[in-house]
Design a protein that fits this description.
Layout lengths: L22 E2 L1 H11 L3 H8 E4 L4 E4 L1 E4 L3 E4 L2 E2 L4 E2 L7 H5 L7 H13 L10
Antiparallel strand pairs: 1-3, 2-3, 4-5, 6-7
Length: about 120
């Protein structure tokens, strides 16, 4: 099937949500502000932090049992994005192609372990 994705985010524990920096633009913050019905400045303060090394804004994080930390909007119980419709452009575009390396790794390990719920760690 042409154009089909070779991964299923619904079967992943959210590895991409554990990246240390999930960059956001002004438009991303504005989308989140609309989603939560708050002003831009409040959304920026509440949901983002400035990364001085990269000189960009990124989403704040929270603790996570699998990956140590994940995006503050990641529902750690359901293992899903809690603001999916308002998610940042970086999240909308990921994994930037038809395949996801982590999903391929995860699927391989789950098949090898014969366990559909196995969480493969890469760190």
């Amino acid at each position: 099937m042409k154009g089909a994705q070779a991964y299923d985010c619904r079967k992943c524990p959210g590895y991409c949500c554990s990246y240390p920096l999930i960059e956001v633009s002004r438009a991303d913050v504005a989308r989140l502000a609309r989603h939560f019905d708050i002003d831009h400045a409040t959304a920026e303060e509440r949901f983002t932090k400035y990364d001085a090394a990269e000189k960009v804004r990124g989403l704040r994080h929270q603790k996570d049992g699998f990956f140590g930390q994940v995006c503050r909007f990641f529902d750690t119980g359901a293992r899903r994005c809690s603001v999916y419709e308002a998610r940042p452009e970086a999240c909308r575009d990921y994994p930037y192609g038809k395949t996801c390396g982590y999903y391929s790794f995860l699927k391989f390990e789950r098949d090898l372990q014969d366990d559909e719920k196995f969480v493969a760690m890469t760190r």
